[in-house]
Amino acid sequence: MKHINVTLAQLTPKLEDKDYNFDQISKAMVKANKEQSDLIVFPELFLTGYSMGDKLNELAETIDGPSVNKIKEMCKSLSLYAVFGFPELGDNGHYYITSALIDDKGELIGTYRKTHLFDQEKAFFNSGSGLKVIPTPIGNFGLMICFDVEFPEVARALKLMGADIIVIVNANMDPYKEHHYIYAKSRAMENEIPVVICNRLGLEEDLNFCGDSLVLDSWGHELLTMEGSEDVKTVTLPLLSVKDPKMNYVSSRKTDLYSVLIDK
């Protein structure tokens, strides 16, 4: 496909209330379907809220858990792709911050476990062990989660792995709004690849989640900017990576100089 219609669900989840949050997911997906969207993206850990702490063992689900299955049914009934964040209970008994990609037939076609954990996340979650590019009929999806965007190696690796688009589920908070705005644009521009980043809003304990969800084309142009408003919005995103022949970032790399990146 040369373009897809992308919907961002910049909303406020209710902490530890999966029923309420699924109701928001359901309503947003219905709206996306009415707007002829191909893909809807939700924030990081949207299913449960972010600051679960000691209740993680009650709220986390496996990849075939009840909430995931309900979203699969919604995707099938609405012929809609979805990327959403939830706390995953792995087969090994460990917990992960995970994003899931469900296709328009209701099939879970891939998950990604956050590899770069932020601050206190390390006290509750394990890091994922690999990066993911998931092929689909509407493009190859490279998945990232929040803090991952601050590591340029992740986006570059996804680009080299064949990603057509990078989709980032986010739970970014003050005072880091500008960080993710700059990094998301940089990841798009330096890799000449579209970037979709969906953040949340609301307060949890001392955390103020700052929104500013974005859809960026391969030039880093802002096709959709949501700033601080709670809303569900759709935009058409070209998937063809338009390259500047004077730049040639990927082919101009000097890989023999970069060993320090893995040796240090």
SSE order and pairing:
Layout: E1 3-10, H1 18-34, E2 39-41, H2 56-59, H3 66-78, E3 81-89, E4 95-102, E5 108-113, E6 133-136, E7 139-145, H4 152-160, E8 165-169, H5 177-191, E9 195-198, E10 201-204, E11 207-210, E12 214-216, E13 222-225, E14 231-238, H6 260-263
Parallel strand pairs: 1-2, 2-3, 7-8, 8-9
Antiparallel strand pairs: 1-14, 3-4, 4-5, 6-7, 9-12, 10-11, 12-13
Which descriptor suits the 3D outline? globular
Q: Strand fraction band?
A: 25-35%
Q: What's the CATH C level?
A: Alpha Beta
Order of strands, widest sheet = 5-4-3-2-1-14
Q: What is the total tally of β strands?
A: 14
CATH topology: Nitrilase/N-carbamoyl-D-aminoacid amidohydrolase
Average residue-wise pLDDT: 94
Domain CN hydrolase: 4-239
InterPro entries: Aliph_Amidase/BUP, C-N_Hydrolase, C-N_Hydrolase_sf
GO molecular function: hydrolase activity
Pfam families: CN_hydrolase
Description:
The protein has 264 residues and is α/β, with parallel strands linked by helices. It has a single domain, classed as Nitrilase/N-carbamoyl-D-aminoacid amidohydrolase, CATH 3.60.110.10. The protein is 23% helix and 29% strand. The chain is built from 6 helices and 14 strands. It has helices spanning 18-34, 56-59, 66-78, 152-160, 177-191, 260-263; strands spanning 3-10, 39-41, 81-89, 95-102, 108-113, 133-136, 139-145, 165-169, 195-198, 201-204, 207-210, 214-216, 222-225, 231-238. The strands form 3 sheets. A 6-stranded mixed β-sheet has the order 5-4-3-2-1-14. Strands 6-7-8-9-12-13 form a 6-stranded mixed β-sheet, covered by helices on one side. Strands 10-11 form a two-stranded antiparallel sheet. A hairpin with a 5-residue loop joins β3 and β4. The longest helix is centred in the N-terminal third of the chain and has 17 residues, at 18-34. The model has no long low-confidence stretch (mean pLDDT 94). Residues 4-239 form the CN hydrolase domain. It holds the Pfam family CN_hydrolase. This is Carbon-nitrogen hydrolase family protein. Keywords: Hydrolase.
